[in-house]
Amino acid sequence: MPTADATTLKTPRPRFSISPVTLIVVCAMALTILGLTILFSASASFKQGPYYYLNKQLLGVGMALAGGFLVYRLDLDHLRRYAWVFGAGALVMLLLVLIPHIGIAVKGSKRWIGFGPVRLQVSELAKLAMVYCLAHYLALNQTHIGEFKRGFAYPLGLIGIFAGLIMLEPDFGTAALTIALGLSMLFPAGAKWAFILPAI
C-alpha cells in the first residue's frame, strides 16, 4: 500500500479566499440595488409616476458603470504624468464657480457649473483631483516624508488650497471631508504624528 510523502502531509490545504476587488464590487452592487429598491418604494406614489425617479437613478448608474469601466482600463502610471494638470484644472474650475453668471447658485451656495441641462458639482471633482495630486506628490517624495517641510508643510498647503476654495462656495461638509482625506493619506505615507495631531 503506497504511503503519502511527508511533504505532502505537511502542505496545508488552500483556504477559500475572496479578493479585495471582488468584495468591493459585490458591496457596491448590493448597496446600489438596495438604494434603488428603497428609492422606488419611497417614490412610487409621487405624482410624476412610480418610475420617474427610478429611471433617473438607473441612468446615473449606467453612467457610473461606464465611467468605472473607463477608469479600470486607464494606465495609472501613464496618467500620473498629468496629475498636476488635473489638479490645476480642478482649481481653475473652483475659481470659475465663484464668478457671477458662471457658477450656479442654489440657496446662497455656488457649487455648480452648468453645461446645458447638465450641472456639474465642481467640489466633488476637486476632491478627487486633490487626492490624486497628493498621492503623486507623496510617491515622488517618499524619502522626505519624515521631514516637516517636504513631508508635512507642503502637502498641508496643497490640501489647504483645495479645501479653502471649496469653503468659499461655501461647502463646509466637502471641505472638511477633503481635509480629512488629505490628512489620512499623510500618516500611511510616513508623516509623523507629531505634525499631524496639532493640525487636526
Task: Give a structural overview.
By secondary structure, this protein is mostly helical. It is 66% helix and 8% strand. It contains 9 helices and 3 strands, in the order H-H-H-H-H-E-E-E-H-H-H-H. It has helices spanning 6-10, 20-43, 52-73, 76-79, 83-96, 122-140, 148-167, 172-189, 193-199, and strands at 103-106, 109-115, 118-121. It has a 3-stranded antiparallel beta sheet. Strand 1 (103-106) and strand 2 (109-115) form a beta hairpin. The protein is globular and about 60 Å long. The mean pLDDT is 84.
Tally of contiguous helical segments: 9
Average of pLDDT:
84
What form results from the Cα inertia axes? globular
- Helix/sheet category: mainly alpha
Proportion in β-strands: 5-15%
- The domain tally reads 2
What's the total number of strands? 3
Gyration radius, to the nearest Å?
A: 23 Å
State the distance separating the first and last CA atoms. Answer: 70 Å
Query: How are strands sequenced across the largest beta sheet?
Result: 1-2-3
Largest sheet: 3 strands, antiparallel
Q: Element order, helices and strands?
A: HHHHHEEEHHHH
Q: What percent of the residues sit in helical stretches (DSSP H or I)?
A: 55-70%
| pLDDT < 50 stretches | none
Topology (elements, then pairings):
Elements: H1 6-10, H2 20-43, H3 52-73, H4 76-79, H5 83-96, E1 103-106, E2 109-115, E3 118-121, H6 122-140, H7 148-167, H8 172-189, H9 193-199
Antiparallel strand pairs: 1-2, 2-3
Helix pairs in contact: 2-3, 5-6, 6-7, 6-8, 7-8
